[in-house]
Amino acid sequence: MSNAVSTARKPAVRAARSKGDPGHSGQRNATLAWLTVPALFFFLTFAVVPLAGVLILSFASWDGIGAIGSAGLGNWFSVLADPGLYNALGLTFLIMIASWLVQTPISLLLGVFTAGSQRYRAALAVLYFLPLLLSSAAVAIAFKALLDPNFGLATGLGLPFLAQDWLGVPHLALGLVIFVIAWQFVPFHTLIYQGGVRQIPRSLYEAAEIDGAGTIKQFFHITLPQLKYTIITSSTLMVVGSLTYFDLIFVLTGGGPGNSTRILALDMYLRGFRANLMGPASVIAVILVLIGLALALFLQRLGGKDKQGSQLEGM
Amino acid sequence: MSTVLKSSTEEVPAGPRANAAAPKRGLGSRMRKLNVPAGLAGWIWLAIIIIPVYYVVITSLKTQEGYFGQNPLALPTSPTLENYQMVLEADFAQYFMNSTIVTLGAVIPTVLISFMAAFAIVRGKGRFLKLVNGMFLMGLAIPLQATIIPIYLMIIRLNLYDSLLALMLPSIAFAIPLTVLILSNFIRDVPNELFESMRLDGCSEWQTMWRLALPLTRPAIVTVAIYNGLHVWNGFLLPLVLTQSPGLRVLPLALWTFQGEYSVNIPAVLASVVLSTLPILVLYVIGRRQLLAGLTAGFSK
């Protein structure tokens, strides 16, 4: 994905190397090729084969224990005709878009903020990144306790409007999920933006200052445009990552109340491992893969023509 | 260009050092002017982060009576470690061991074989290596969750269901693409003259790899090890699907089941949350810069 951005920066180095390196013989390349075999073996066996397997299983009927039979296109027809799929799809995109809208401005602001060198900002940054250390399960459990209407935040802060049945009302549960996802992932994106801001050449700001541009102008005319690729990287990770917010939602709401937070990944798990319908669950998995690929390609395209080739390389 | 980028990222990670660097001061004074929106967001966000963390820690130190009787955000009147003792007695040491075994058992092979592959991809030529590289790059786009059903099937057929090894194998496979990408970026930065002189000294590629490339890429290796380690340590789906015995639970799964069993004893549940995070917190205190660098490995270099 976007990580390949850094690969793309060094084509010149690579070209120079291969020219000045006459020692490539068949023998040597054969030795080197052997070095990739262990990694290749693991990768093919436990990543590529399962990827092919999920496509095959989407045409099979299997309850997770017994024999595997053929289902033809049956799974696909039944899943595509199931309103549950569209509910899950809609929720997935809703959470994706809401998460992006919530997390991007906050991460960007905090990234700019923590990139400054004042000591108190550094101290704050140490605390900001704490959520990165926690597992999704831990975050979900902590928030469940925190939101207890009697013994949680609402009483602690004396804010009665926080005393809601957060996990029992569909739209509240959905809002909660979006908030907790932001709580857990904003630090990561802050870190990415912090790195991006620190790479902006200072001379740009000096020039702008000489030209008399104010702080806000500088932000919109220098910082934002300079962060273009950082924004694309962060957004790609955010959007594609949102397809996989499984752990957090599983522990926090379990998809409920009703099906109001049952996103695609959760839908797949519940169909497969709770309802023992591995075939239809595999159909959902294939859909997940396709959406992920489509989104990644689409976001890379936004990155503009010049960068496109090299970033697609990283897909 | 890459050197410029790298030195700037390496110097900055916030802290006293950033202040000491003289040229940074200009940046600081510029940032100070952005204080209003960013500063406001900064302090509000601090509260949003700190209050839940504070709540979890103080509640874990409360007795049941304290939890029900006191203001939830007040410090415990009679702090107790009872909850921690209870959690530890509930086999937490075992879960901790399981997590450690799985994390080490996944990260060490991942880094080792990815390093070998990255070395070959950078040093070698030819169609095969290009193909391998292309495959790993495509692998970055495969989401682990979408392949969980076939992985489950394979693990059953391999008679590995309900074993710690079952958790390691897919973890290794899915960590390889990004690890290879990051390590090969670093190996590319090793000056060619060094490889040349190794060759002139009659060293084999194997020797060059261990004696030259490995020591020179050590920081990158630490970085990817941390990145992968955190992911495996906090991983939830694989243990949920691939194990069932209580004795084989890893920490995130143990947290989840513990929460189900002790839902009436919130202080104990939160003590388990604190305990499961403690090792990473220690790591954060010791090597914050390395840890944060590891987290964004490959994304913000």
From TrEMBL, chain A:
Transmembrane segments: 32-57, 93-113, 125-147, 167-193, 237-257, 277-299
Organism domain of life: Bacteria
Subcellular location: Cell membrane
Record membrane topology: Multi-pass membrane protein
Keywords: Cell membrane, Membrane, Transmembrane, Transmembrane helix, Transport
InterPro entries linked: ABC_transporter_permease, MetI-like, MetI-like_sf
Presence of the UniProt keyword Phosphoprotein in the record: no
ABC transmembrane type-1 domain residues: 89-299
UniProt-listed Pfam families: BPD_transp_1 (PF00528)
Chain segments carrying region Disordered: 1-27
SUPFAM superfamilies: MetI-like (SSF161098)
Signal peptide extent: none
Family of the protein in this entry: Belongs to the binding-protein-dependent transport system permease family.
Protein name, entry field: ABC transporter
Organism: Pseudarthrobacter polychromogenes
From TrEMBL, chain B:
Membrane-traversing stretches: 34-57, 101-122, 134-158, 164-187, 220-242, 262-286
Pfam families according to UniProt: BPD_transp_1
Positions of the UniProt region annotated as Disordered: 1-23
Membrane protein topology class: Multi-pass membrane protein
Localisation: Cell membrane
CDD domains for this protein: TM_PBP2
Positions of the ABC transmembrane type-1 domain: 96-287
InterPro entries: MetI-like, MetI-like_sf
Domain of life: Bacteria
PANTHER family attached to this UniProt entry: ABC TRANSPORTER PERMEASE PROTEIN MG189-RELATED, ABC TRANSPORTER PERMEASE PROTEIN MG189-RELATED-RELATED
Similarity section: Belongs to the binding-protein-dependent transport system permease family.
The protein's name in its UniProt record: ABC transporter permease
Organism name: Pseudarthrobacter polychromogenes
